[in-house]
Amino acid sequence: MTRTSALISAFPAANPPTPEKHPVSDTHHGITRSDDYAWMRAENWQAVFRNPSLLDGRIRAHLEAENAYQAVLMAGTADLRGKLFAEMKGRIKEDDSTVPMKDGPYAYGSSFRQGGEQPRYFRTSRDGGSEEILLDGDAEAEGKAYFRLGGVDHSADHRKLLWAFDDKGSEFFMLRVRDLAGGKDLADQIPDTGGGGVWNAGDDGFFYTRLDDNHRPSKVFFHKLGDKYENDRLIYEETDPGFFMDVSGTRANDWIIIGINDHETSEYRLLPADDPSAAPRLVAVREAGLQYDLEEGGDVFFILTNADGAKDFKIMTAPVDNPVRAYWQELVPHEPGRLILSVLGFKHHMVRLERKDGLPRIVVRERASGEEHFISFDEEAFSLGLSGSYEYDTEVMRFTYSSMTTPAQVFDYNMRSRERVLLKTQEVPSGHDPEHYVTRRLMAPAADGELVPISLLYHRDTPLDGSAPCLLYGYGSYGITVPSAFNTNCLSLVDRGFVYAIAHVRGGKDKGYGWYEDGKRAKKMNTFTDFIACARHLVAERYTRHDCIVAQGGSAGGMLMGAIANMAPESFGGIVAEVPFVDVLTTMLDASLPLTPPEWPEWGNPIASADDYKTIAAYSPYDNVAALDYPPILALAGLTDPRVTYWEPAKWVARLRERKAGGNPVLFKINMDSGHAGASGRFSRLEEIAYIYAYALKVTGKA
Which residue among 105, 241, 527, 551 sits deepest, i.e. has the most Cβ atoms within 10 Å of its Cβ? Predict the structure, then answer.
């Protein structure tokens, strides 16, 4: 029996939807394409993001038919999904709580109630005591099919709470202000924001970004409490659609920082937090390829930048009264191969998170003497995160640590005494013994001689004779590094004999900034060939075999899934593409879409450049679907997703079914009540993961 026929027999017989064809052609650079399924894009997509009920009935009927089809094919996994969900839920401490972080007379944190889907925000007195609930996410979400909290920020006087929520999944957030004395929201309500805001020094108003009709944060406003939002003062407007904008503050509450960025260029403007009427002051004019970031430092700003050829970044300082580029002075020089990721400034110390030799590390610098020290760890591979502090004048900062076998730990670290205090270790109520698991780091040889890191987790009893199934996860875009962190969910696969693997492919910054540059634009193909090389290396090292590898990726990682399906379908036993960016060329040709102009530095601009058009066309998954014997494929999407619009996977699935050879099924599951992040509740999200894992078990014959 062939692999294909064996997999077909795993699914019940059912006829997939057969959508209508209405060819639409476009011509660019003398090249004409035809798209039979362009009609799946709603003409009123902006309105649908705000109100999903406005979706065209013909499109809705097709999407519902897709959901009905996948429900039939996955019906036999209902019991398995229930078991997987129960296991994953059993590893979560249902009434979990963060360690409160001190700020003045209080300490602020978040928690969940037993069975709760949404977080609650609370505070205690500075040194502990009873919790005062400031915002109850479950109460706010009641009666809503989708609910997601955005930013939550208390005022410096501790009397008010600025908070945001999205109840459509479209990432248009409503901003509200809560009076903490009475526990009620004020009349101030601001729609269509970016999801957060920053209090001014007087705590009588706040700065925020407002999204335009194309979902771009193009304007920063100041809202004075009690005023109508229609009368809010415009602080700054960004007219270039290729740049996104955000607004933030400093912990010392002295500056408001407006950040303007695409994927390779940045620009910042400053205004005093106590003077909302001030005109924003430019720090350094945008210059293509120049990146910089600001961090407070009292009388100076710390500036993390790639200026002057510092590919892996260096740290400069500049006086706060005149931080223009002419006055930048080097503090931490550029060191090739040491990628500085972020900087935190305190009154007496500066902390940086950097990556060297593929692993993160934290470096603490005493500002007066310049003396530096590292915070050391024992494991071979691990993940670190800087949690920082609410306070600027402090000697204590917070960080997190985990590995693929070690649950997350939260530490307070005294930067002067170097004392490390373990505050919390992630609890796994159903039990977790790290000794039952093995984590390893392999290096897969790529076709051009580069070595691609792979992080592995498997049960110590799993046979390494090539028979084990494997879930191979990848992303590889925007310089995002997938951490080798603890993940309780994947234990449900590992405990069933799976090898869980992360392919650290080019396009991330796993091996420095050059690793990112070698996986973007004209070099994007490296991302895909690296992933395929990882799959082949795992087989060569007898961790698995090709028909037992399930590849998984989401968003830009979903594009990776579509590309490897076209390039090496024989290397995988199944593919899971979550919110997959698969119609790359069409999207990059449409400047009206929310992310298109800011994404041109990442992918190229096929409107302006024939070379960019041809580069993208060579790998765009939708454009390269062919008569191949594809493995089983599962695509997942959300109707109100502004990042990867629902019609991309809908069209891709239709074309796959039309053109592919062989009988392996292609499934499409779309959440009609959510966007890019999927279900919003912590347990609702587990149901989606249980569905994906049940699919992986099914296509590998382990269900």
Answer: 551
